[in-house]
Design goal:
CATH topology of the largest domain: Rossmann fold
Domain Glycosyl transferase family: 194-347
Helix content: 40-55%
CATH superfamily of the largest domain: Glycogen Phosphorylase B
InterPro entries: Glyco_trans_1, Glyco_trans_4-like_N
Number of helices: 16
Oligomer: single chain
Protein name: Glycosyltransferase family 4 protein
GO molecular function: glycosyltransferase activity
Distance between the termini: 14 Å
Pfam families: Glyco_transf_4, Glycos_transf_1
CATH architecture of the largest domain: 3-Layer(aba) Sandwich
Number of domains: 2
Structural class: alpha/beta
Shape: globular
């Protein structure tokens, strides 16, 4: 039997567009691209050119027009033929257009629509209207969590019978012990001391970094002397207050380290391996991949008790109210305690990381494709 050909959107994988750093959607897209072939699926990467990055600079097969131009044409009924006679196209990054074949779209969350104050103000109303409109071109919607389903129904106007829930995953490598010498070298080069509190994510309002720093500042001096606060993630939209909070904490003598240019999953895994606990205080997440990454590395996790995060954590994390600085601080203290409760959570977390693999994600995604062709 010949492989099922599909088109897979790949703008998030283009080095000329992402600066060599994959965001959550990029990690998701790359995981599918690498695993679908083992399931009899042949993905053809396809990317939209932009004014700054024309077709000849793209690594994937270039779409005939930029996304905004093609979306306008879609509104007038113009459809794009899929690449290489693909049976369907899977849109992983919201850039959904009218195609001459079935379309699967992964809508990771409805954050720009539900919480417009957390999104860039530049052309916000237009972008949100286009996002709602684009969702109409998908024959099947993939949600990455059960928690996201009601949002997609309400804010994208999607019927529930068009939605399939396919959870995100984590690479098997995250469950393997990291090389101790490599971990030590990473710590030395970055000025890290083992056992730090770790945050991973792009600095932006919903990541709640400001309250995390406040919580760290309230910890007992003895705890802070033992444990740095390490923030891994590049600057995003409207993060000036977060950067100011980082600089002020450093100026005031608090050991807060910001790694804003860490590139590559292997380097990130080394940083996880040296942590004492992951603290993930987001105000809202469509999923929350760092929780699974920390589980795989065998470190305790403290995370918010809202949106998808309890679903991802599955009772293997300490949960807290992300609006309560004292609650965040208490969870941080509990997460690094040497007790049976934490050891049980670590064991359960590793079980969840093993079960929620990218192989599982690819298998369930392939099943969605086969429903349509």
């Amino acid at each position: 039997m010949s492989a099922l050909k599909i088109g897979l959107t790949a703008n998030t994988l283009e080095p000329a567009l992402n600066g060599g750093i994959l965001d959550g959607i990029g990690i998701y897209t790359q995981a599918l691209q690498s695993r679908l072939p083992a399931l009899g699926i042949a993905p053809q990467a396809m990317s939209f050119p932009t004014r700054a990055v024309p077709a000849q600079r793209l690594q994937a097969m270039a779409m005939p027009r930029s996304y905004p131009a093609q979306l306008v044409l879609s509104m007038f009924g113009a459809a794009v033929r899929p690449p290489d006679s693909a049976a369907l196209v899977h849109v992983t990054d919201y850039r959904c257009i009218r195609m001459t074949c079935p379309v699967v779209a992964t809508l990771h969350d409805a954050i720009p629509l539900r919480y417009p104050q957390w999104a860039s103000t530049r052309l916000r109303a237009l972008k949100n209207a286009l996002m709602r409109h684009a969702a109409r071109y998908a024959d099947k919607i993939i949600a990455v969590s059960e928690a996201a389903v009601p949002e997609l129904i309400e804010y994208f106007g999607v019927q529930q019978d068009r939605i399939a829930v396919v959870p995100n995953g984590v690479e098997a490598a995250w469950l393997q012990p990291a090389d101790a010498q490599a971990v030590a070298a990473m710590q030395e080069s970055a000025g890290l001391r083992p056992g730090y509190f770790l945050f991973v994510g792009t600095l932006q309002p919903r990541k709640n970094v400001g309250r995390l720093i406040q919580a760290y500042r309230t910890l007992p001096a003895s705890t802070r002397e033992q444990r740095q606060l390490v923030l891994v993630g590049r600057s995003g939209w409207s993060c000036d207050d977060d950067i100011a909070a980082i600089r002020q904490a450093q100026h005031d003598g608090y050991d807060v380290v910001w790694l804003n240019d860490l590139k590559g999953q292997e380097k990130l895994r080394l940083v996880y391996a040296g942590a004492g606990a992951l603290v993930f205080p987001s105000l809202h997440e469509g999923y929350g991949i760092p929780i699974l990454e920390a589980f795989g590395c065998g470190i305790p996790v403290a995370c918010s008790n809202v949106s998808s995060m309890p679903e991802v954590a599955g009772n293997a994390a300490i949960e807290f109210d992300p609006l309560d600085v004292e609650a965040i601080a208490a969870a941080m203290r509990d997460a690094v305690a040497d007790n049976e409760e934490n050891r049980a959570r670590i064991a359960l977390g590793r079980q969840r990381a093993a079960a929620l693999s990218w192989d599982n994600t690819a298998r369930l995604t392939a099943a969605v494709y086969r429903e349509l062709v």
